[in-house]
Amino acid sequence: MKAFVLKDGPFLKSKTKASQLKLTILVALIPLVLFAWVKNGIYPYLHHNMTFQQMCTPITMIGIVVLISTLSYFLIQKLKEEKMNHYKWLDILCSSLILVLLLPIQTPIYLLVIGSIAMAILESCEPLKKYVNPIIIVALLILIGNTITNHNIYYNVYEQEIFSDQPSYQIITDGALSSYQMLVQPYGRLLDFFLGSVPGGLGVTSSCLLLIAFLYLCYKKAIKWEITITYFFTVFGMSTFIGLFSHLGYWYPIYQIMSGGFLFGAIFLATDSLSTPTTPLGRILYGFGLGILTIFFRYFIGTSGSVILSIFIMSLFTTLLDHIGAVARFHFEKSIPVFLLIWICILTLSIFIGTRYQVETKIDMYQKRESI
Amino acid sequence: MGYKRSNLKKMSKDVIDYLTPKYVYIPLASGKDENVTTLVKKGDYVAIGTVLGKRKGANKVPIHSSVSGHVVGIVKKSYVTGKTVRCVKIENDEKETYLEKVPERKINEYTKEEFLETILDTGIVGLGGDGFPTYIKYNTDKKIHTLIVNAVECEPYLNADTALMLAQCEEILETVDAIMEINHIDRAIIAVSRNNTDLIHKLNNFIGTYLNIQMKIVDDVYPNGWERILVRELCHTNYKEVPLEKGIVVNNVSTIFAIYEALKYHKPMIDRVVSFTGDGLKKIYNVRVKIGTLAQDVITFLGGYQAYEEMLLVAGGPLMGTAFPTDEIVISPEINCILALSHEKEDDVLPCIRCGKCAEACPAKLSPTGIDKAYRKKNKKQLEQLEVERCIGCGLCSYVCPSNRNVRKQIALARQLLREEEV
């Protein structure tokens, strides 16, 4: 009598594996890594008086973060006597790349080293990862460190000479409502924001590359795209409202989307699989929440890490949103109060910001012009 | 979201017969119900159609002998549920002696009472895999307005219904028409998979004769053949427990053909068409076999196995079926496929990455990650809120899981926990 293997079904498995999903994210990050080097290293080196060492700064930063975080993670896994597999290698690689692409070019090396080790420790802490994305915590810590040590400057050497005013991050937080001449013109046109030739985090400025990465990730089904889409449209919609109230014009919501590392955060940070809701409705609610918080932080708190802070706060609500999303799959009516609350927040916040800042901005704008 | 079948190897749509096993082992069980009264003993002579046992309780469906010969004894054999159950072992004398010869009858001349009596006496049960007694579906005073004939057969590798329908298309249409007439049903819908072009073509040739029978095409995606999805897609309505609540009856193609044989020849439930398939078999065929035949005998008849080092033998499809350590599985009415697959080394099981693919894939709209969490916390209230009982065990959650986790098993454990606590 022939013996057969006894196991539980199902006996067919999809070819999509967790490590493949991470590999897809890694592939999507590679053009951004190259862009970071070209924009902050190669291009200024070729067109300006820049040393070879300065040209290598972006790639050195990337190398330091990737190497230290990967090695530290490997050592921690060894100490914990846990096996390294493809997924874990790719996971730490992706996380370290995302982290370094977020950071200002002038982040000191010691902060990079501390941040990389901190991330390896947090990445090894499985229960924590379910509640908050380790990259968010480390990025926030480094940004705070940069602010304390006065290194929170998003200019590379080339930009420092060309743009005499504050960087885009600072501008958007100091006076989120301002004119085209104040917000866009110092850096060129909106097209420059689209292409990425404006100051910002190491690899977060090119909206064009980020949109291509997003389309690729959606095609490969590697991210929770509902979050990005809802987040995008919430911020876009609210900015449109605010812009209309303030008579700013249609460039304003586009500027909001293409500045402040919004797209990078919406695509690579907000869609982290572990710390975000699993149900489709939960993801939509999560995206709305992110949008509202981002607008709130941009106008009220004035932090340059508004996207990161929003993601950090929303990830604390993941369990709740998942539960609402799961129950609403059978009883949609139970999610209606949440949607109502969201719409009230969106409308109230948009009207409030749009009407409150209208006069102040004009005065602020003239004052700024005079000081320049 | 679902599993697209089109990437699988096409198998022959012919049906071959294997109707002369030396022994048959008629399971004294019906579905999961083993509460059966045995009516024969060792040494008894039985003919085809002799009642060997009867289910106790409300659903008294008889269990018939599928061959003529002497009862060798009551033995235990592997059954569709994965358990071993008591079976009546009969030595086949190959005389094909029937208990009684009932004259042929026109199938549309039955009254509703006669119809119900016939399908109860002949032991007709659902042949789509559930084994639910068919007479219960029709035994109602409620108006039935729609009969859905399920020819979708959405699970990968399965081909038996298609083969049967291609071979017996006219008889099946005639039976659908008769059932409609007897039960005063307004319309019938035959649901067919989009990629099943042979069947669509064949049905198009005959269906024009029957004005109240429509053919409707559904996407070739698993689990589109699930009763609930069919009712939703074809009749645009949802039901709570059974389709009859909405005046709808759903029957599988093989069940319709069994009804045809019962009405026409008063033939009891003694054989069915089973797909013997998978890369582990030398020849793959749809085979008409007697109920109680061992899968081992049919596979030997088909030429045996490929020389793989490790193999899986599955009764049912690859997503909903059960694996067996032996090929001594008795063919019961619920088995529509015997699948032999080469067994490759599996990837490691990783912790859940909360990608949500299971929730996206679930046709019952469950949230497996939430259920798993609630199960680990033994949170009965939350399990109830997450409506874990809706799971149909289609296995899509496990299929799509990129971490290689057996999500379906976790949900089954959660259901079990909920039921235990209810008790």
Tags for this model:
heterodimer, A: 372 residues, mainly alpha, 2 domains, 19 helices, 0% strand, globular, B: 423 residues, alpha/beta, Rossmann fold, six-stranded mixed β-sheet, four-stranded antiparallel β-sheet, 13 helices
Helix content of chain B: 25-40%
Q: Distance between termini of chain A?
A: 91 Å
Task: State the end-to-end distance of chain B.
Answer: 36 Å
Characterize the quaternary organization of these chains. heterodimer
Give an overview in words.
- The complex is a heterodimer of chains A (372) and B (423).
- Chain A is an all-alpha fold and 372 residues long.
- Chain A is built from 19 helices and no strands.
- Chain A has helices spanning 18-47, 52-55, 57-79, 86-102, 109-124, 126-129, 134-148, 157-162, 168-174, 180-183, 190-195, 207-219, 225-245, 251-258, 262-269, 280-301, 306-315, 318-328, 336-371.
- In chain A, helix 1 (18-47) packs antiparallel against helix 3 (57-79), helix 1 (18-47) packs parallel to helix 4 and helix 16 (280-301) packs parallel to helix 19 (336-371).
- Chain B has three domains: 18-98 and 270-342, no CATH class; 107-265, Rossmann fold, CATH 3.40.50; 357-422, no CATH class.
- Chain B contains 13 helices and 19 strands.
- In chain B, the strands form five sheets. A six-stranded mixed β-sheet of chain B has the order 2-16-15-19-17-18.
- Chain B starts with a strand and ends with a helix.
